[in-house]
Every structure is written in structure tokens, then in C-alpha cells.
Amino acid sequence: GADTITDTEARLLGYLIGDGCTKYRSVTFTNADPAVLADFTRCLKELGWFHRVRPPSGHTKATAIILRAGEVRWAKADGPSPLMAWITKHGLAGKSSYTKLVPEAVYRGSDAIVAAFLGAYWSCDGGVLGRTEKRRPRAYAETVSKPLALGMQALLLRLGISSAVCEKRNGNVVSTVQPDVYRSY
Question: Which has the closest alpha carbon to 81: 52, 109, 54, 49?
Fold first, then answer.
């Protein structure tokens, strides 16, 4: 691949696809792991973007980080902010958990870019199950977007890691997008 983004941008894309909200004008990232939050804010600083932290409240233990393009509020009349232009360029603007995809720049990137993206995404929506008597250790990630799951599988295969995309169903969860059955992959 030919890198069209930096390692930092790849990590930021992974974080935003994992635990980010890019559906609305305000872009946020919510996570409870201090190491993940620290790396996320490091990526923002490296790109010259600013943020505001909303500490955990109520029933959640997660911290929300609200991204901003600059120190001052961006006026709509000035056009899209650099942050929103970047979000749009990578196909994340207006996307929900159900419609997020692997960005084209990650597909076109080198193995190092793919690894940076996967590492950040995995720290949000992935995990590792240890060995038991009945099972070998395994890594997993879960999403409600089947196209995203298939994209992740393609990226893993590119790095020489075989994987399977399996459908998981919960019939008792109410969802406006999938009213009868909640599916994840």
C-alpha cells in the first residue's frame, strides 16, 4: 500500500470507529480505559486538534472527549472545520455504529497503517479470551456493522491473521434499526 495517512491518523480513525460518535456535528469519543484516553488525546495533540473532557457522570464510568478543530468555536459560515473536513474525507461524517466502515485510506495504507488502525479499534471493541480446558486462547472484536466486520476480516487477512465473521443474535434487545433481533458480528 501507499500511505495516504499517518500512523497517528490511522489510530485516530480506529478509535473513532470503535468508540467514537461521528453521526452529529459534535464529534465525541467515550472510553473508560485511562491508557486508551491518554493515547487518543496524544493523537489529537499531534494533529493539532483540541478537545474538552466530560468526566464520568451518573451510571457510567466512561470519560467522553469532545473534539474541536481549534481553540475558538468554528463558525458555520467559515465552511467545515478542519476536523469535520477530515471526518468527511474518511467517510465517517453522519455514520452510526450500524453504518461505519473501514476507511479507504486504511485499505490503501501499508501494513503499519493497517496495524495501527486495528490496534486502536481493538482497544475499543475487541478483547482476548484466555485458554481454558475446552478452548484455545482467541482474540475477538464485536460490531453491529456487518460491512465493518467484513472489512476488519480483510485487514486481518492482509496481515496474515485468519479470522471468521460470525453472527450473534439477542432476541430480547429493542433496537430502532433492528426491531426484532439485535445482531452483532
Answer: 49
The cell for 155 is 485487514
* Measured torsion, CA atoms of residues 14, 19, 24, 28, in degrees rounded to the nearest 10: -100
Distance CA 13, CA 90 (A): 8
In residues, how long is the chain?
Answer: 185
Give exposure, 161-171, as e/b (b: 16+ Cβ within 10 Å): eebeeeeeeee
Amino acid at 78: D
Q: Which tens digit of pLDDT belongs to each residue from 136-167?
A: 888 888 888 999 999 999 999 999 998 888 88
What grid cell was written down for 116? 495501527
Lookup result for grid cell 470519560: 63
pTM for the whole thing?
Answer: 0.83
